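Hey,

Quick one before I head out. I ran the complex with DLZ overnight. Inputs first:
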Amino acid sequence: MKFFFIYSFINLFFYIIFAAAIIIKKLKKMASNLKNLSDFGSAEIPNGIDMKIGVVVAQWNKEITDALLKGAHDTLVKHNVKEENIVTVSVPGTFELTLGAQSLLEYTDVDAVIVLGCVIQGDTRHFDFICNGVTQGITELNIKYNQPVIFGVLTTNNIEQARERCGGKLGNKGDEAAATALQMVALHNQLRDNYLSNYEESEI
Ligand code: DLZ
């Protein structure tokens, strides 16, 4: 009888160790699925030396959007965009990012615009309306102006999630937006130049 209890106890012990190992493995996998926004992996970030980039930043949740702006600015400068070629304007809230971006596209000669904002889920449906409005608005600007408009808006459940993504443990969405802007301008210019040189050849 005593032997049976000891045997069962040892079995139970190994079951618990086995289950804990599986749970830890799953948790680790879940954690690694959360992408670090400042880690561009193997993506090559183009040289921004000849690029002019507009940045529109929302004042709502300023603590967060200031940090997004710093991330975007530092990444642009790191990749050789000149300070004088970064045109920054601010708007009251995320909802106004669309018009801010449109004004930069219409009245300046920027190659791309980055919009930065932070919408935090509240008790009402305002969150959904702002997120839908700005997503739709920015998508339409990309197509209307045939120029990159990059979506650097955090849409989080709470302020902690936002802090994690504006320079915290999950990187900075501003970095990601800036790197994306450089990539899209380079791609856009390359395709345009190829198209123009093919067009000129066919004209000869
Ligand atoms: C009104 C509002 C609310 C409730 N929440 C946010 C937010 O979390 N993040 C943000 O950027 N802006 C918010 N706003 C303001 C709207 O974006 C917009 O400025 C106002 O509705 C005026 O159009």
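The pocket of DLZ is lined by residues 58, 60-61, 92-96, 117-120, 122, 126, 130 (CB under 6 Å).

Talk tomorrow,
K.
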